[in-house]
């Protein structure tokens, strides 16, 4: 069965919204040429087609001179799910799927409408969608995926491969493209759980190409579209990885992850205030357990932003151990974050209980929608008013869920995707009976919901977890390699488990963000040295990314 490759090219912006690096050199060749040379080694492809805006066609032809590729100009504009991808994929950027909305890396570049048109024109039964920045994509894996799809044509209409973003692609049949392209949805919708039509996860079905376990278990973005991934690829090529296959690259990624400390954290959580309308909740340390810290100063937040250098892929989460929307300069801080070139995505974790003053509430909502932030996590933790009151200590379930529905409707009225609204649920003994109803209701209504386990925060609060999921063998805490935590009083502490600042490293202003991130305490924890620390030896969260 004939298979063509389709590569969506934009020389201005990447699918994530960062600047396009396709025309930039990477170890002596442009990013795009590296991708095309790799794809060109796949023997099962009949042809390779490069989609691009009409205004970029001439430049693209010059860039690909001498390569057997067909440039396909279009004036279709952005796909309908572009903003959804840009809001969602940041929260699972180093994995092939996951994060808010459960979109996949295959959703980032796929232009289903154009792919369907090309498949019909070329009389191709299958289309291979390849990310334009996939400079280390494995040609042998592509051939194997095409062969598997041809073999399973009656059992599956697509073939995908779990693994680090950039090592593989997705194969879709012409029949499937004709079915889903008119819907305006990305292909990842086929991999997402739907309560109204449940099916077994496709990773256990014919549609999944199961590479070696070392490939499926590795993580780390290998698409040349952010500052961090470009640095990772430069390091890979310096190690000799230019000609490595997927298995060799995955082994290198896994080994690197054990020791590599990000120069700038990939994610920074900032506590704006400890004020909280859910001070009596059972599920998170709040109120008296946390203590009172003055609202963070805007200049402290600016110091953090000023330290991020040339990065363009830092995620900032406004959360901590209080209600961030109660900060008097909440709107100003959201604007500061959005204007910072280093910040790729912004999230706000809120209980959803806004001030009773209508003007104050409207100002908060306008900050969320007008900035806009990318993701709003609402800590609901229940599916009924009775359970909500039991675990949160207040009777506010109806008002919070009503506000979530209003926010969802407001997005429709304003015709904007962001902010994504994601209800969250901390699974504990006290609310276990609500978990399934919670997930099905909100996954069906908003397309996303998240469930996490209860943490005892290194023995500082009562254990309420249904079961422990910590692995039997302890390794250095992964969080300390890529995530930073700033408390409202300006102190950086070792991680989000330290709600009282017992392991604070220092204070911004007295030391720079970089000095705190590279402090002796952080280095010792990364090396597995927890001796003398009050919390780390008792913590069960060290295995979480």
How would you concisely characterize the structure shown here?
The protein has 19 helices and 17 strands.
What does this structure look like?
- This protein is α/β, with parallel strands linked by helices and 545 residues long.
- It is built from 19 helices and 17 strands.
- It has helices at 31-40, 57-63, 82-88, 106-109, 112-122, 139-151, 174-180, 213-216, 227-238, 246-257, 298-306, 330-339, 358-370, 385-392, 397-414, 435-446, 479-482, 513-517, 520-526, and strands at 3-8, 25-26, 29-30, 47-53, 70-74, 126-131, 158-160, 170-173, 267-271, 314-319, 343-350, 375-379, 420-427, 450-453, 483-486, 491-493, 504-507.
- Strands 14-13-12-11-10-9-15-16-17 form a nine-stranded mixed sheet. A six-stranded mixed sheet has the order 5-4-1-6-8-7, with helices on both faces.
- Helix 5 packs across helix 7, helix 11 (298-306) packs parallel to helix 12 and helix 12 (330-339) runs parallel beside helix 13 (358-370).
- It is globular.
- The two termini are 41 Å apart.
- The mean pLDDT is 94.
Tally the beta strands. Answer: 17
Count up the helices: 19
What's the pLDDT, averaged over the residues? 94
Q: What's the overall geometry? A: globular
Distance between the termini: 41 Å
Question: What portion of residues belong to β-strands?
Answer: 15-25%
Low-confidence stretches: none
Percentage of residues assigned to helices: 25-40%
Structural class: alpha/beta
| Sheet of most strands | 9 strands, mixed
Walk across the major sheet and give the strand order: 14-13-12-11-10-9-15-16-17
Radius of gyration: 24 Å
């Amino acid at each position: 069965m004939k298979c063509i490759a389709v590569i969506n090219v934009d020389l201005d912006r990447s699918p994530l919204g960062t600047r396009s690096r396709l025309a930039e050199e990477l170890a002596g060749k442009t990013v795009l040429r590296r991708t095309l040379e790799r794809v060109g080694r796949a023997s099962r492809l009949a042809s390779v087609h490069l989609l691009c805006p009409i205004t970029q066609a001439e430049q693209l032809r010059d860039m690909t001179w001498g390569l057997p590729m067909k440039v396909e100009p279009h004036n279709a504009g952005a796909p309908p799910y572009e903003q959804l991808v840009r809001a969602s994929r940041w929260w699972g950027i180093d994995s092939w799927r996951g994060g808010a909305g459960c979109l996949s890396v295959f959703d980032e570049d796929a232009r289903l409408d154009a792919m369907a048109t090309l498949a019909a024109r070329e009389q191709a039964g299958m289309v291979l969608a390849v990310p334009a920045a996939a400079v280390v994509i494995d040609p042998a894996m592509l051939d194997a995926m095409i062969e598997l799809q041809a073999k399973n044509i009656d059992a599956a209409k697509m073939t995908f491969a779990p693994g680090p973003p950039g090592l593989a692609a997705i194969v879709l049949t012409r029949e499937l493209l004709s079915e889903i392209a008119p819907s305006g949805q990305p292909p990842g919708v086929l991999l997402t759980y739907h309560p109204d039509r449940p099916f077994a996860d496709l990773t256990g079905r014919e549609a999944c190409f199961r590479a070696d376990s070392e490939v499926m278990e590795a993580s780390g973005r290998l698409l040349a579209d952010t500052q961090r991934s470009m640095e990772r690829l430069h390091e890979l090529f310096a190690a000799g990885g230019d000609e490595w296959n997927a298995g060799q690259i995955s082994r290198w990624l896994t080994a690197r992850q054990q020791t590599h400390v990000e120069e700038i954290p990939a994610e920074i959580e900032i506590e704006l205030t400890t004020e909280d309308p859910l001070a009596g909740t059972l599920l998170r340390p709040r109120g008296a357990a946390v203590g009172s810290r003055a609202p963070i100063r805007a200049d402290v937040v600016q110091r953090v932003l000023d330290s991020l250098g040339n990065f363009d892929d830092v995620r900032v989460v406004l959360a901590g151990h209080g209600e961030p929307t109660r900060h008097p300069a909440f709107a100003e801080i959201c604007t500061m974050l959005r204007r910072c070139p280093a910040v790729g995505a912004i999230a706000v974790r809120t209980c959803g209980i806004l001030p009773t003053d209508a003007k104050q509430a409207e100002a908060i909502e306008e900050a969320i929608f007008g900035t806009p932030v990318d993701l709003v996590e609402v800590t609901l933790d229940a599916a009924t008013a009775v359970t909500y009151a039991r675990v949160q200590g207040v009777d506010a379930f109806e008002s919070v869920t009503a506000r979530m529905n209003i926010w969802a409707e407001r997005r429709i009225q304003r015709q904007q995707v962001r902010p994504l609204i994601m209800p969250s649920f901390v699974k504990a003994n006290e609310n276990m009976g609500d978990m399934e109803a919670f997930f099905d209701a909100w996954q069906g209504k908003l397309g996303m919901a998240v469930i996490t386990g209860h943490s005892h925060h290194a023995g500082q609060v009562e254990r309420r977890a249904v079961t422990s999921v910590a692995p039997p063998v302890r390794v250095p805490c992964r969080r300390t390699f890529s995530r930073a935590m700033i408390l409202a009083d300006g102190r950086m502490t070792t991680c989000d488990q330290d709600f009282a600042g017992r392991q604070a490293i220092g204070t911004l202003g007295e030391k720079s963000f970089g000095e705190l991130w590279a402090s002796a305490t952080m280095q010792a924890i990364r090396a597995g040295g927890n001796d003398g620390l009050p919390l780390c030896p008792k913590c069960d969260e060290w295995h979480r990314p």
